[in-house]
Design goal:
By secondary structure, this protein is α+β, with helices and mostly antiparallel strands. The chain contains ten helices and twelve strands. The chain has a five-stranded mixed sheet with strand order 3-2-1-5-4. It has a five-stranded antiparallel sheet with strand order 6-7-8-9-12. The protein has a two-stranded antiparallel ribbon with strand order 10-11. Belongs to the Ntn-hydrolase family.
Length: 362
């Protein structure tokens, strides 16, 4: 599916850039990118999400605004075509302040409550059966047969181990293809978002990293303490990413001068070799990272400033598809990043990235 992944990444980048060119802030642009990614039947988010153990679809999504530092998220939500729209609405509603009688507005809703809140705020419902695709349904049937066979052959510990392996072997990276995006706007504001249908054959009610604060995404504008604005989105095995809070860890690491080295060390020390995952033989995850700072490109009298933007990605999974684009580009660039030949997924990592300088007239 490499071709389809590249195409949807290009469309998502174009959608976000179109919003930025129209004057939208980063949080609106990142939402637009995620809607495009969720609507693709080839991604494990929104339409075409993995089916859970009961044959249902439950999605997770979150978004963070680096300017306000507000965050919105939904977990295990069913019957909503674009979970990121609910997360974004939770974020914007929270920015409006307290509810009646001084109640604090929610930032994270799950299950039926999340669905009902979404509908009451004008987000249309979508029957779960319409969100399933022929790909997700056939994968569910294959997994179901494998699990039934494993349960007949094994008991106790071996049964549990066999069941887990059958899911991993059947779906490969398909279990883990969470979607995400990171954006910086012309004002230098950053935003990040993430959305996922979760692991195939997950237990109903399971919530992955895509909804958890500091685990699925992170965005933080520059301030006195932080010289760089940073935005991060993660993908991979949700349980591994939750236990390491990888999004926030990578954001913190990005305040070092050498971004490439900082991300390398964060992925190695805070993820692959994390003491919180010492019992895991394979630690599966990936991140996209954006960091930026303002820099003077010309004499101050000309009122021309530049935003130095660095975009990096790293993963321990076998592969990861990335796309990137600036408002100055005519089209998005896409790339399938892969682990070096001969390396073991979950035990080694790949890391790549580049620098872009954007001119801003004020």
């Amino acid at each position: 599916w490499a071709k389809e992944y590249k195409h949807v990444c290009k469309r998502a980048c174009q959608r976000a850039v179109d919003r930025l060119k129209a004057g939208a802030l980063a949080v609106e642009a990142v939402t637009a990118a995620l809607v495009e990614l969720e609507d693709s039947p080839f991604t494990n988010a929104g339409m075409g999400s993995n089916l859970n153990l009961s044959g249902g679809i439950e999605c997770d999504a979150s978004i963070m605004d680096g300017k306000s530092l507000h965050y919105g998220a939904v977990g295990a939500i069913s019957g909503i075509k674009n979970p990121v729209l609910v997360a974004n609405r939770l974020l914007s509603e929270a920015q409006r302040g307290k509810l009646s009688a001084g109640r604090i507005p929610p930032c994270f809703l799950v299950g039926r409550g999340a669905h009902d809140w979404a509908v009451s705020h004008g987000i249309p419902p979508c029957p779960s059966e319409k969100m399933a695709t022929k790909f997700s349904l056939s994968a569910y049937k294959r997994n179901k047969r494998k699990m039934e066979l494993a349960e007949k052959l094994d008991t106790g510990h071996n049964q549990t181990k066999k069941r887990r392996q059958s899911c991993e072997n059947e779906n490969g990276s398909g279990c883990l293809d969470t979607v995400g995006a990171v954006v910086v706007d012309l004002e230098g504001n950053v935003a990040a978002a993430v959305s996922s249908g979760g692991l195939a054959m997950k237990h109903p009610g399971r919530v992955g990293q895509a909804a958890h604060y500091g685990c699925g995404c992170w965005a933080e504008n520059t301030c006195n303490m932080n010289p760089y604005s940073t935005a991060v989105s993660t993908s991979g095995c949700g349980e591994h990413l939750i236990r390491t809070m990888l999004a926030r860890e990578c954001s913190t690491a990005m305040q070092s001068e050498d971004a490439h080295q900082a991300l390398l060390e964060a992925m190695q020390n805070k993820f692959i070799s994390s003491p919180f995952l010492a019992s895991e033989d394979r630690v599966l995850g990936g991140v996209i990272v954006l960091r930026c700072c303002r820099c003077v490109e010309a004499p101050p009298s000309q009122n021309i400033q530049g935003i130095l933007v660095e975009f990096l990605w790293s993963h321990t999974t076998e592969s990861m598809c990335v796309g990137y684009m600036s408002a100055q580009d005519s089209k998005a660039k896409t790339h399938i990043s892969r682990l070096p030949p001969g390396t073991v997924p979950g035990q080694c990592l790949a890391i790549e990235g580049g620098v872009c300088r954007l001119s801003v007239v004020e």
